[in-house]
Amino acid sequence: MSRAGHLLNRKVEVWRETAVDDGGGGRTKTWVHQATERARKSQPTARERTTADQTGAELDEVWYFDPGTDVRRGDQLRPPGRVLKVTYIVEPSVDDVYRRANCMLVQPLNGTT
């Protein structure tokens, strides 16, 4: 566990788009559950939101994971009631501290946010 591991107080499902055989000789893309990981949700600061706006990115939520967690750009995080797209992965300047995933809300599930 990383030095920040004690702060990872939630579990979130990680899903990845994967190409699978469609049974007719072709392939189709589908979302496949990769793992349920320990994480921490944080709200982006006003400065982070401004930076995202200036670069044309959307930033709704920030999630932190252990540094070795396999979370990639394009993955989906699925906390209860929401689907988030990972738009950017940030590695800390100090090794073995955390892995940060900047995310945008794709859709609420069951009409909730």
TrEMBL record:
Bias kind Basic and acidic residues: ranges: 35-51
Region (Disordered): 19-54
Family annotation (InterPro entries): Phage_SPP1_head-tail_adaptor (IPR008767), SSP1_head-tail_sf (IPR038666)
Superkingdom: Bacteria
Pfam families associated with the record: Phage_HCP
Protein name, as recorded: Head-tail adaptor protein
Annotated organism of origin: Streptomyces phaeolivaceus
